[in-house]
Design a protein that fits this description.
By secondary structure, the chain is α/β, with parallel strands linked by helices. It contains 19 helices and 30 strands. An 8-stranded mixed β-sheet has the order 12-11-8-6-7-14-15-23, with helices on both faces. The chain has a 7-stranded mixed β-sheet with strand order 5-4-17-16-18-19-20, sandwiched between helices. The chain has a 4-stranded antiparallel β-sheet with strand order 21-22-24-25, with no helix packed on it. The radius of gyration is 24 Å and the shape is globular.
Length: about 625
Amino acid sequence: MKSIYDFQIKSKEEFEIVQDKSKKYPEVFWSEVAGAFKWNSVWDKVLESDWTIPRTKWFINGKLNITENCLDVHAKSTPDKLAILWEPNDPNADSQRITYEELLSKVCKFSNGLKSLGVKKGDRICLYMPMVPELTVAVLACARIGAIHSVVFAGFSSKALSARINDSKCRVLITADGAFRGNKIIDLKSICDDALLSCPSIEKTVVFERTLKKIKWNPKTDIRWDDLIQNMSEDCLPTIMDSEDMLFILYTSGSTGKPKGMVHTCGGYMVYTAYSFLNVFQYSPGDIYWCTADIGWITGHSYMIYGPLLAGATTLHFEGIPSYPNWDRFWNICEKYKVNQFYTAPTAIRSLAKHPKELISKYDLNSLKVLGSVGEPINEEAWHWYDENIGKNKLPIADTWWQTETGGILISSLAGVTDQKPTFATQALPGIVPELVDKKGEVLKDKSAEGILTITAPWPSIARTIYGNHERYKEVYFSAFPGKYFPGDGALRDTKGNYRITGRVDDVVIVSGHNLGTAPIENSINEHPGVAESAVVGFPHEIKGNALMAYVILYDFNLKTESLKDEIRTLISNSIGPIAKPDKILFVSGLPKTRSGKIMRRILRKLANNEFNDLGDVSTLLNPEVVEEIKGQF
Ligand code: PRX
């Protein structure tokens, strides 16, 4: 049997051969890669795909449990190898080093704990946790017993949490008493208590004790993590799953109000995350790999847990934030653990670049071999700062383009193997077929072109549906350009076929790497009794990439005060989370609209960016005078 490392591409020539093969014979290619994993029974058909329905199925009738491949195989062959290195928020507190054998035992114990609560295959379990090893344990325990995990980022508000719990009718909530973030303590349990006032499907709440602060306790439903696992066995047979059974749901914002529960399935997700992890980051056994994301996002799922563990890698998880206790924390951690692969977001890079270089030069960063970037377009300045100061002009930078929906990285250089180009994600991974189209869907055939990005061939880790709403899945991803997957991003291609992602082409704004639909923010602003209508747009921001600006029409214009702005921000924070608060709020008497009543967001975006002279023809608007009025307010 081949190992997944046998599929690690090591040269440009090999990349071309593999890319060619994957395009010509995708089913042969992916079935060979899939053969590197342990299956309980092998698939009888590799692929069934029809994007007019849309439907994508991989490794049909294959049976497996992903945790056997993440844990058991390594616990057997290399039991003492480190699976997780955990660095706490407080640099003086104890770190943790968890071997594959230990991680397997912890996962089995918690799996048995979940079973003792009556959790069974197909049940949805919500996780709202700090970045502690128990979060990874809980994720894998769900997967082990066939329960579907739905991790909600622990920065979301109680309303956002309850909306996600209710959408997928989760039976159990796993949380903690609180979270340490820098010098703050976030009271997670009370946020959960609030959320659960409107979540009838939750039967039990498991509480991991992290901060040991006093919390409200509901003896009928709350169970301490330690009590749950106390007498549990360290063995738990994995539940055999179908390749197309759901592995997890992860919510992402959309351009319309409700979050979308993206559904990922077991077989294809396993094959693609491991394959892309090994190839993009060029991980070698023994390396220490660090991704600074939060497990509450897809990057955490695919490249902090599943991808690395499937490859038997050592994955470093950090509980804290880059600024605590000082802005040198990342470099301190890189030195402390001799990190080899470092994967972070442009927004973090831009914040780090604001601080004195001595904070970097204090540390020995010679262990670093590969740098990565994810979450938003990386601007030229940030790319060069990263290259010069962290990469010392000699390390490859993998700018990885992908999404919650794609499950894994689709466009990126393979670090040090294929060519890189500043601000370009570069080439598609083997098996991925990008195509640029114009607004009408005409394929842009010139080598060098700029347009809308689509993907034309199925890949194993594409999200299969939106939980409970296949129609919306079809509408959002497969109706703009029938037969093609539409990710919602614009891109340009150079003459060598390198792709640069230019940003969203829909009403999603990426703020500090977080995807925020403008519609849900507008909905929460409109909840204010004084607000008649609002429109939220993004505008460029030095650190965050984009910031938000809200244009708000009040019923009574005379009520426009700073305290009303605070009330609006609080409303947004309560209904989504602090990340969605706009930087600027402008009270206006009208919004520029077309004659059919549609808000002209293009104009609002330009105004927010002070591009007053580049507004185009506004004379056809229903109310051109409001444009002048808004200009006057800046
Ligand atoms: O607009 C693209 C941007 O982030 C979006 C996906 O966001 P999310 O589902 O939250 O996943 C983020 C982590 C994978 C994309 O549609 N994006 C992500 N990576 C890049 C990027 N934009 C440009 N360059 C990237 N490397």
